[in-house]
Amino acid sequence: MTQRANSIGSAYDMPVPSHDARLTEVGRGTPMGELLRRYWHPVGLSADAGSTPRAVRVLGEDLVLFRDGKGMPGLVHARCCHRGTTLYYGKVEDRGIRCCYHGWLFDVEGHCLEMPCEPNPTGPQCQRVRQPWYPVAERYGLIFAYMGPPAKKPVLPRYECLEVMGPGEFVEADDSSIGSGGIQIASCNWLQHYENVVDPYHVPILHGSFSGPQFAAQMSAFPKVKFEYAATSVKVTSIRPGPDGKTFRRVTEAALPTLRVVANPQVGGYGMVESVGWTLPIDDTHYRIYVAGRVKTPGELLGFRSRRNGKLWSELSEAERRDFPGDVEAQVGQGPITFHSEENLVSSDQGVSMIRVLLRRQLDAIERGEHPAGVAFDEAGAYVRFDAGQFLE
C-alpha cells in the first residue's frame, strides 16, 4: 500500500503534491491512455447516432458521432482533414457526413467520397486523404468504439448478466451516470470513481450514518469483507446480517477496463448482478457512466434515486449537497485529479490498492508488447461471466 511519512508540523511544511500520472492520465501516448485504447468503450446510446452530428469527447479526443442514411453509425475526429473546421456543423447524408466549410463528404470509415469545389469532385484526389475515424459497434442499446491499434482490435465482449434473461426481462441502456451520485458528467478523474467500486467501507459511513440511509437499511451495517483477484477484476465480498437470521452476501467487482459491476444497493432482489456500468474517461478531469441492465419495464433504470427524498443531483440545493453528500461530492472533493502523494492508505483501503496493482500489471503487459487481460480475439473468449450479485443464504 502507498504510505507517506506523516511528520509535517504544519500545513506550511507540506511538500509539493503530485498525482500518479501513469494511472490517471488517458490521452494518446500516455501509459493509461494506451492501455484503455486496447478495449472497447461506450461513446453514446444507440439513439445518439442519428442524422444530427453529435459531439462526443472520449479519452481526451474530440469526436463526432452520426448515422448515415443507410443506418450505419460512424465516429470520426471532429477536425475535418481538409482545413480543420469541426464536422459537428456538418450535414449527414445517405453516404456519410459532409463538411460545412467546403463540402467534402466522408463515409463512416473516413473515406473521402466528394470534393465538390474541385474540377472533378469524385476524382483521384479523393483517395489521397482520409478523415481519421474509429470502428464502432452496437450492443445493449449502446454505441461502442475501439480507439486502439487496428491490428490489435479485440472482439466486442458479451456479458452473461446481459445475455441471460429472466421472465419478461429485456436490456435497457442509460446515459445518466447511474452510480455516480446523481451527476451526469463529474468533474474529476475517472479513477476516483472506479476505485470507489471496491471501497465497501464507505457505504455505511457516507451512504448510511453520515448522509442518512441512502440505500436499503441492511446496507448500513458494517460488513465483514473479503478482497480477492479474479481473472479480470478485483472482487469484493461483503457479508452482512440478512432477514430471518440469514446471511446477506453481496459481491461487487471492478473489472477491466473500467467496468463497475454493482448490484442495486436498494436490494430489490437476489441473484446475478442485473447491470453493468462503464466508467468512461472523458479526459483527465471528467468522467461519465454508461449503464446497460436487465429490466422489466421501460425507464426502470432511471427509477433508482438514492439522494435525499429521491431527488436527482440537479434538483438538490447547494445546502443539501453540503449537508447530505454522496459519491460525487466525495470524489469531486478529492480534486480534479487527487494528490496520491498525500494519501495515507490503511487496511480498509485494500481494494483500492488491489485495483491499482491490477491496472499496473496491465500497463506492464502493454510495455512488454503483450495483450492486457480481458481482451479476446474470438467470440467464445469474449463471453464474460461475473460473480457479482446479491445472495441470501
Give the overall average pLDDT.
Answer: 92
Overall radius of gyration: 23 Å
The main sheet comes to: 9 strands, antiparallel
CATH topology of the largest domain: Naphthalene 1,2-dioxygenase Alpha Subunit, Chain A, domain 1
Beta strand %: 25-35%
Give the class from helix and strand content and strand pairing.
Answer: alpha+beta
Give the strand tally.
22
Description of the molecule:
- This protein has 393 residues and is α+β, with helices and mostly antiparallel strands.
- It has 2 domains: 40-138, 3-layer Sandwich (Rieske Iron-sulfur Protein), CATH 2.102.10.10; 157-392, Alpha-Beta Complex (Naphthalene 1,2-dioxygenase Alpha Subunit, Chain A, domain 1), CATH 3.90.380.
- Helices cover 15% and strands 26% of the residues.
- The protein is built from 8 helices and 22 strands.
- The protein has helices at 21-24, 31-36, 160-163, 190-194, 202-210, 318-323, 327-332, 350-367; strands spanning 40-45, 54-58, 61-67, 73-77, 91-92, 97-98, 105-106, 112-114, 133-134, 136-139, 142-146, 158-159, 170-174, 224-229, 233-241, 247-255, 259-261, 271-272, 275-283, 286-295, 383-384, 389-392.
- The strands form 5 sheets. Strands 13, 14, 15, 16, 17, 18, 19, 20 and 22 form a 9-stranded antiparallel β-sheet that branches. A 4-stranded antiparallel β-sheet has the order 2-3-4-9, with no helix packed on it. The protein has a 4-stranded antiparallel β-sheet with strand order 5-6-7-8, with no helix packed on it.
- The longest helix is centred in the last third of the chain and has 18 residues, at 350-367.
- The two termini are 33 Å apart.
- The model has no long low-confidence stretch (mean pLDDT 92).
